[in-house]
Every structure is written in C-alpha cells, then in structure tokens.
Design brief:
alpha+beta; 937 residues; 12 helices
Length: 937
Amino acid sequence: MKQTLLASALLLASPSFAANWQTIHTEHFNVHFSSEHTDFAKSTAVELEIVRTKVLEQQNRALDKIVDVVVFDPLNAANGFALPTSNNPVMALFTTPPQSDTVISNSSGWQQLLVLHEYIHLVHLAQPTRSEWQQKIRGVWDLYDLTYGDTPRWVAEGYATLIESKMTGRGRLFDNYSEAILREFAQQGALPTYVQLNSDEGFMAGSMAYLIGSRFLYWLEQNYSEQLVDNVWVRMRAVKSRDFDDAFSGVFGQNAAKLYRRFIAEYTYKAMQQEQTESPLNSKLWLKLDLYASNPALSGDGSKIAIVERDKKSNTKLIIYSTEDNTKAQQQFIKEQKQLLEDDAKDIPDTAPSVFKREQKQILNQINRAGIANPQWVGNNTLYFNAYSSEESGTYNKVSDIFSYNIDTGNVEQLTELAGIRRFSVTRDGETLYGEQIRAGYSELVKVDLNTQTITPLFTKSLKTTYDYPTLNPDETKLAYLSASLNENWQLYIQGLGGDVRQSIPMPNGYQYLSQPSFSQNGESIYFVAGLNNKTDIYNYHIKNNTLTRLTNGQEALAYPIETEDGSLLYFSTNADGPDVKTLTTKDRTSVTDLAVSSEAPLLMVNKHTLPPAKIYTDEIVEQSDYAVLEQQATFALGSQYYSSSTSLLSVGIKSSDLLKQLDLQAGYNIDLHNGGLYGGFVQAKYNALNTKFKLALFDYNLDTSRQYQPSLNADIDARGGFAAISHPLKFGQLQLTPELAYNYTDYKNSRKNWTRLSISQQWQHDRQAFAIGQSIYASIYEGRNQSSHWQGYDVATKIFGKAFNIPMFVSFEQKQRDDSNLALGGFSSNLINQQQSSEFVLAAELPFYSATAERYQGYGGGISFKEGMPWFYYKQHQLDNSVYAQSYGLKYQGDFSFGMGPAGVNDLTFNAGLSRVEGDSFENEMRAWLSFYYSL
C-alpha cells in the first residue's frame, strides 16, 4: 500500500489548485471540480451514488464517512487514485479517457470504470478497525490511519481490478489484450513470483499487481469461495492486530505464496496446452529491442524506422534505425570469431544472432522529462511527436502538445501551445494534422492548421465518445480512426475528407480488443490488431472488395502492423523481456466471414450486482456551492529532530488543511529532549489559492546554547514574535522566478527587533536524461531596526547543478552580510528557528547554535550522488569575516514530501538526515550525525 501511495504522489507532482473551484454535495460524496470539468463532475456525482449502492449490495459494506472526490486532469492521461483513510477518505479522478491499446481500454465507460475501481479501494482499505483504541488513534492521526494494515500492493490493486471486472462484465480480468500478453509470459516461464508481484522492475512489472493479482484472487474465489476471500478482509480489521499474511493463512490454512505457486502452475499449464494447438507463425526477428518500446514509424522512403523506447531507468528516447541489414556489425562479428579461433583453435565460437542490431542513425532524448510519443514522419528528415507542455495556471499540470525534430540538425521546435493533442496523423507538407484532442474529459477528433494554429472539430464533442489513432491514407483523401461509445467496443471507421459518407470496417464476431490501424502502401487495404478469445491477431480489410482476412492465429501477442514498400509486414511481438520487431515472411490469409453485427460489447459476467449500462448523466444537481476553503480537516502532527551537535526536539501539534491545500494551518509545541536547550511554541498559516501566496507565523521560543551537546558561544535567547511573507511565483517554461516581500517583528527579553526583506529567487534547468544542467540564484536585501540602531544586510546564494552520465552533482556558494548586526553560525532548521523567518542565523546542521558570530559569512560547497533522489556525498566550508572557521564532509539527505492534496497528515513533511566529519581550529574534529522528521509550512 505504501508503494501505491508513493507512486500516486509522484504522478500527481503536487499540483496547485486555483480559487475558482466548485463542490457538488450528494448524500455520501462531496465532488470538487474546476469550472471546465463541470459536465464530467455532474455526471460523476450521479455515478458515485449508483456505484455505492451496488457495491453495498455486493460487498455488504460501505463507508459511513462522506467521501471527498476530486475531478481534474493533471496529466492529460488516464489515471486516478484513492487515499484510504478511515477518517477522511479521498478519491482523485483524472478525466482523460484511456486510449485503445491500453489494458484499461476494455470498459463500458471510463467514468464508470474509474469511479468503481477507486471506490472499491476505499471500501476495501478504509474500513475502520474493530479495535476501539486503534481506531481512535486512526481518527486523529492521518499517517497512522493511512498506513494501518499495510496491505500489499498486489492485494489492493488486484482486488479493485477483480471487482471492477465482476461488477461490469468487462475490465482487465476479461481483456483479450491483457490475456494475450500474460499467456506469452506464461509460455516463457516468466510470470512473476509472489515476491515480484509488488515490484515495478522489469517489463510490465508495474501492471502485474493488477493483471495477475486480480486473476489470482479470482482463482481463489473459484477454487475455494468468495466468502473465504472476503473473510481475509474481515480478519484484517479485527481487534487482534494482523497483517495480510496472518489474516490469509488463518483463513486458508496455508500462506498466500504457496497457493500462488499452484495458481501459476495451473495458469502456465493451460497456456502451454494452448501453444501445442497452434501452428508456428511464419515470421522472423527483424529488430531486437530493449524493454519498453512503442509507436514505430516508417519513413516515406522506407530507409528509416523511428521507435520510442524506454529503459529500466525510465529514460525515454526516440531512436531512428536504418532499415538496411547491419553488414558492418556482421563483418565485425565474423572478424571477432575468426580472431577467437586464431587465439585458441579448440575454442567454440559464439553463435551468430538471428539478426544483427540495425544501425542507430539518431537518438533524441526526452527533454525536461516531457516524454516522447507517437512519432510521425514529415518527409524523410523530420519527425513530429507528442510531448508534454506545462500549463502555468495550475488547472492542468501537463498538456500533450506537438513538437518537431529535424534529424539532420537536431533542432526541436514546439508546434502547438497547450492544445491537448494526443495521437495524430500529419500531411506530407507538415502543415496540417488530424488528431485526437482531449480536454476536460472530452475527446474530440480535430483538424489542426499549424500555420494559423486553428483547431477545427470534425464532429460534435460528447463525453459518451472517445477517439484514437486518426490515420491518413497515402493520398491523404481519407482518414481512418477508432471510436468507442459507451457500452460498446472500439470501432474502426474510414471517413472521406471531402465529406464522403463514413464507412464502418467489419470486425470478427465476438471481438473485444481493437487498435493500431495502418494503411497498406497503396491505400487499398488497412491493417489492424483485434482481440478474440483471449488472443490478439493482425487483420487486413480490403476497402474496395469489402473482404476481411486474418493474417495470424493467436501465436503471439501482436501490435503495430506496418506494411513496407516491398509488401512485407513489420509488427511488434511482445514477450516477457519487452517487444521486438518481427516480419511476417508469408501472409497466410484466413478469410473471416463470421462478422460482428454490432459494436455492442459482450459482458462476460452478469448477475444481480452488475452495474447498469454506463451513462453520462446530465440531470441538474440540487446542491452545488463554491469550494469551502474553511472546511478544515485536522490531524495530530508528531515530529522528532536529533542533532548530535546541538540538541533534540519532540514536536507535538495539530495540523489542518482543506482538501485542495488552499489554506494550511498548524500549531504546536517543541519540547527539548536533551537538557532544555531549545523549546517553545509556534503557529503557522499558508494560503495558496491565488497566484499570490501568503504565509504567516507566530513563534515563542527559548534558546540556551549552554545546554547543547557541543560547546558554543554563550547565548540565552527568549524570543517571541511574528513573521509574514507575500510572494508571487512566475514560470516561463523552465525558468522560475519568485519575488517575495517579508516582515519580521521579534521581542527579546531585554530588546526588540524588526526587519523587512525584499528578495527574489530564480531557477532554470535543462534536462536531457543522462545529462542535465541547471542553476539557481537567491538574492535579498534587509532593512532592519534594533532597539537602539538601524541595520542593513543582504543574502546571496547561487548553485550550479546537473547530471553527467546519470550522476547528479552540484557546486554552491552563499554570502551573508549584516552591517551593525551579527550573524550566528550553526544550528538546525525547525518550526521555531528557520532560515526563512530568522535573519540572524546561518544554519548548519553539523554545528551547534552560536558556534561563532560575525558580520559576514561565506559558504562554499559541492556534492555528488550516485542516483537522483538518493543521499549526497558533500563538502562544505564555512568562512566568517574572511577566515575559515570550519569544514565538513560526509553523507546527507534532505527531502520534502507533499501529496499536493488530501488529508493534512500526508502533506508538508520535511525529512533531513546526515553523517559528517567536522573539522576546525576552535573545536575538536569529530563525526556528527542528525536525523529529523517534522511538519513545516
């Protein structure tokens, strides 16, 4: 469960939510949405209540709490997640529907599938425990509530996927595409082990929790009973604490791993039986690929093929291969084997590969993690492709746009601006494209004039219909495309661009999966992949003759058929290591005469719990209001900080926020666990709904440096006061600017101080995956007043950071100057003292508070890490008034975690840890360590 939550947080990437949100109130749900998602949200509100009623009948359980539901589109992609807290359950629904060639495309409707899947997560995982004292803790402590039970990922996702299929008769359990891939895995002995079910390492590993998890649970229900499976969930919420393994073993009399092995054995046996009945496919390997690959595109002259590939480090590349045989590699191989035998005549040479890897002509790495998808050739030297743009308003975080890549010059140019175009087909002159535009849940087929940026819809938009794979025929007079309406399969159409009548392409009777249409070179026929009886096959439809033929017979999991100039057919063949490109050496055509009479999708399971047919509800909602930012949800906030150079703190408080984190509040008290060196209380508030951000803080603390672990200058500070800041973040692509105005007033035991600070921070970066460069600058000026004098000062900090061969590194410099006032070096950041609201401190975790004082401070540092997101090996030198005071080096890590929405307890977490060697002339050289975890606004 923890892995699922972390993945959801990374996907969401902390969006900002503007102030103009609305809320629909139903009996059991509050549906929150921005104005552009009104239609989707209104229909969702009705669907939620329908799903809840049917789930209550099927599960005999529901949630007593009102569920908060967020409807938005942060990624311009199909997804969603649930935060299963028993006290404040939350669902997030992404409005973009799935594309035809995904494992979630088999549904009666995206909205219905999404609502059902995420609500099952809540009903399954957010049930209160029957232990009264544990439930009371869950009710006041979000982190404990969210991680209670720690259900394995495969259980959480597998069960939601199982019920999604059982209650709709469709879904991933009954998906031909999914089943074809899993059968390939089974026939290669590569189905995941029980431990690997929760892993995301390997081809399609992240999907196995859904696909295999649901099938294992279904196998348990069929071989034992539905009630026994349900008993596991009942035992996990008992007075006696049990994890999943204990709950499962107590019900089934043996552990889940043992039964899983039996399930895999049976599944593999059936797959091998099926393989014995299949005739070999007349194909051969054409190009060996690595892990993930998609969207092959053949150049107009047939000399190059572009393929999007993604490796195990999630590096995405657009690779252009030559279509010619790699004779250089073949000759080199022969030369090496000859040399091998010359050195040792008795040695056994390597076996030549069935095909030598084709020459890579060019490689385009994704830029700034924007992705690469759907390459299309314009001529023989330019590729158009999809990548993400960022919408700065916060309504959407990422929007799919069209970019061009000149393979001769390497130049990349953005062609559309926040258009929301996914798959597309472009004319030969590169001036017009036909694509699927997706915004606010609406999928539309549009024509885009790239010269004028004019976007013209081809049909009336509707939430009932989704489009995919618009494909121009060779003479650009016709457009093929896929379309799916509610409760129907995907259907393939050909539309004349001159206004001709739309032609529906016949499909084999009983089909369920359909995707990836591709015209033949002469435009007289069209290829596509369709699924039938748990298999996927390549089909060809001859347009003039109105004949449908099948070219394969379920021997492989197939994708992306492309006809070459000589009439041969390239295609992707999916195996356990990822797809490879093969070519059909002969086209054994089987005529298909048993055709589907309609596109209505068959339901493979129907019972009294089956949901009604999917529908877009347009009824007026009775109760709708502005989003209520003052509806705060509070949680117990616990933190702890240990610093071997100074002291240890226990932070106890209350933290609250609204669901969208527009207003955050926190109040607490820090208790010194060492010797009373630092203690006090604080109150904080932060408002984020507007483009301009506001922050307020009150503090009351006592710092006695004589009570620290390490000696320092004597200082006994009793301070209370307030801090206020107003900032206005600006973003221009990869350039970020944030001007800020801040004010502090502090009363001390025998004096007082106030200051005003005007600052600006700037950051820029350019990321090419293995290599990256970036820089940041922070500059501020102070105007302050003590009880008896005025003072001025400034802060300047700069950092250059980047990656080389995937190794992160940085160098930094900072300088602080105070005229007629002193800076105090050392100490750590907390809610009482921190760099933002405390002008007199130069915090350094490895040194005690008030290690030394000066009017001028300079710091030089740098670091290197072996992987992004991992600890740094660092060096830091501290200079006071041009003299080196101390240096430190070692290992450190600092990270802030915020989900961006949801319960207050899963946001604004700060984690800091380190181990360093500290050296200086005024103290004993030694190792020092720190570990810190607390909430901070």
